[in-house]
Structures are given as C-alpha cells and as structure tokens.
Amino acid sequence: MGRFHPHANSQPHANSQPHANSQPHQNGQPHDHPHKDGHARPPGSVGDHSGYRTGAERVEVLERILGENERVARANRAAFDAAGVTVVNLMSAPGAGKTTLLAETLRRLAPHRRIGVIEGDIETSLDADRLDGFGASIALVNTGNGFGGECHLDAPMIASALPRLPLAELDLIIIENVGNLVCPAEFAVGEDRRAMVFAVTEGEEKPLKYPVMFRSADLVLVNKTDLLPHLDFDTEAFRRNLDAVNPGVDVLAVSARTGEGVNAWCDWLADPLGAPGAAPARR
Amino acid sequence: MFKESGGTSGSPAGRQGARLDVRGGRAVHELSICRSVADIVARHAAGRPVTRVHLRVGALRQVVPDTLVYCWELAHADAAGAEVLAGSVLVVESVPAGVRCRRCGVHSELAVPILRCAACGTTDVVLVSGEEFLVTSFEVATDAVEA
Ligand SMILES: Nc1nc2c(ncn2[C@@H]2O[C@H](COP(=O)(O)OP(=O)(O)OP(=O)(O)O)[C@@H](O)[C@H]2O)c(=O)[nH]1
Ligand SMILES: [Mg+2]
Ligand SMILES: [Zn+2]
After folding, report:
1. Looking at residue B50, which CATH number applies to its domain?
2. Which of residues 5-34 of B touch A (CB under 8 A)?
C-alpha cells in the first residue's frame, strides 16, 4: 500500500498541474485509461522524503459530476412525454410567493385542466396542505431525510413522487421546488420549462448575485408588485441586471396577493408558445 | 491560469470551512455534489486506494470550491463502497467564464457573470467556457518503493 505525504495536502496550490485542455473530449464518452505518469508526488509536495517513494497512478475519468442526476432526469422526461404531460419547475428564494401563486393558479386553472403538483419541502406538509381543495393531485416530497435535509429537489426525488400522481390523466405538472436561490438551478428534474418567482422585496441586484438560477429560467415572475408603492425597488435596474445574465428572458409582473398578472401566467402555463415573446417550446 | 483549492477536511483548508453550517442549507448542495463525485470515483477506482481527486468546475457554476473541499470527507465517510476514498484529497480546478463575441469575434474572460464582450460591449456573445462540471481524473496509490 502506498504512502501519502501527510502534509502535502493542506495547502491550496498556486502551482496547478495544468490539465492542458479545459474541454471534455469531444465524443463525450467517459473513459478510463490508467497510465503511469509524472505524478509520483502530488503537486505542492516539497522536500525530499527519503526512504519512500510514493507510487501513484493517474486515472483519467472525464465524467460529468451530475451525470447520474441527468440520466434520471431524462428518464423522468421520457415518462412525462409518454404521458403527454407538460412539466414546469417553479423555483425561487424562500418566501418569494411560490405557494401563494400556485394557489391562485389552481383556483383559475384546475376547473379546466388536469393539474398535478409536486411539492418540495424540507420538513413539513404545510405548503401541500395550502394547495388542498382545488381539485389538483398533490404529491409531497420531503427532502429532509438523509443528511441534514437537501436544499433542492433532484431527479431521483421527482422519480419517487411519480407513482403517487395519475400521470396519464394529467395535462400539466407544476413542481414547487425548495425555496433556495442557489441549489435547485443545478439539478435538472426532467422539466420542460423553468419558471422563477422573484419578489420585489428581494432587491434588484439579485440576478448578479445568483446568476445561475436567473440564467436557467425560461420565465421570471416578478411577484409582490402590490408592495411597490412602499419600496424603492428600481424595476429598470432589475431588468438590466436580469438581461446581463439572461438576455431577453421573458418577464411577467404579478401579484399573487391582488391577482395582477396571474391570468397572463396561466396563459403561459397553458401555452408557452402563445405567450408573448416565449421561446420555442421544446416539443 | 487556474485557481485550485485543495485540502482534507482536517487540514487548515478544511478548518477554514468549518464556519460553514453544513446542515443549515447553504453547504448541503456542495455535499450532494461531493456524494456524486464519490460515487463516480469509487466506481472507477475498483478497489484501488485513491489519494487525490481532480474536479474541473466552471465559474458560472454556483459551487464554492472551498466548500466542496470541506464537504469531501463528510460525503464519503459514511458511504458504502467508498472506503477506497478514505484520506483522499479533493483538488478543484476553477475555469473562468469566457465568451466569444458574435459581432467582433473577440474572446473575453469574465470577471463578473455578465455576458458581455469586453471589446465592443455587446451582449451578443457565445458562452465558450464557465459551465464545466467534471470529474477529470484521480490518483491511486501503488505500492511504495524503498528508495
Ligand atoms: N404582499 C404580498 N405578499 C405576498 C405575495 N405573494 C406571497 N406573499 C406573501 O409572502 C409570504 C411567503 O409566501 P409563500 O407563498 O409561502 O412563499 P413560498 O415561495 O412558497 O415560500 P417557501 O415555500 O417557504 O420557499 C406569505 O406571507 C405570502 O402571503 C404578493 O404578491 N404580495
Ligand atoms: Mg412554498
Ligand atoms: Zn465584441
């Protein structure tokens, strides 16, 4: 068994071993070809540790870190497509108004369309309970089991919820992701589109601070517009910041409290193709 | 060109990260990413003891390299089949975000996540780097050789 220099690990390495090309291999195939190379010592190790020479072998991998999640997301997507159901992943910071907006959405759409909701919540069923009674099928996913609670929904969690929804009977599934501006954006779940709720109380600089989620959204709902008279929120600066990270993305001003803009959101849900300026639907 | 973060959880680099509340939400994202990395490497290692694991992470990924390094040991300590990762170090190679201008053809590296040509200012650009998210390689120890 090889020995590893015990102190070689603790320094951040200014001298990286350049890995020549920063792109994965063009064919995208992971491969695995060990080869003896010059990495007998880890970069950053210093001094002559006479008495030992550590043998090391580098194994090339080039595998996407979230490849397994992506694989399950594709399987979810295939199940959605086979059932003819459109799936929207609704994301936001905690408290931006996803559940309130969903209740208003179900009030308007559930009488006409067969809707399923997947509720992601760390511990409770509080949000799922608020959506009861509209005639939609609700499946709750508590992300709290496992290590300390996941802060996002991932594709396997959505897969685990699917048997609890009458997939073949549904037209539309809305997934309320866990309230979090960072993590959900990294995890595809098999959705057709992503919508993001942004509340005007959050501040106009947020797209620059959390670019990954703002970049990943097909539609940004600017919520709590009823509060604008009480805030110094700069709508134009927000739009500029949003365009900086996601040029030309669709934006809808809504208030889940007063109902402003909620019909336009329902139109987008019903027919993203018909919505003004909407990007082409993927199917 | 590349910045790297490295260190075991018990190292100074790891202790730096101890301010992070792993259960409080923020770091859990990195934790689940580390678990994915552990699965990938353990599968490829096929029983060989792993010493270092190299990741390549684009600047547009909302992932904090130091947090990944801090979470690494936690992520594989209790994982079945990941015993080969005991004592291993995660090394993160950060790739800056870069865009190529559709108007003037210039390549710019981005210091902030604003997709804009540094030469002419247009936002009509193609993202050419910054979204990488890969396990690139790992090192396995072979038998020590008496010098
Ligand atoms: N004034 C105002 N308040 C709103 C609006 N939408 C939601 N709220 C309030 O904002 C708070 C949070 O709303 P929720 O709907 O629970 O937000 P959420 O995004 O589902 O929150 P989490 O699921 O916990 O992340 C509640 O007190 C809502 O009543 C709105 O348009 N205007
Ligand atoms: Mg909610
Ligand atoms: Zn240009």
Report:
1. 3.30.2320.50
2. 5-8, 11-13, 22-23, 25-26, 28-29, 31-33
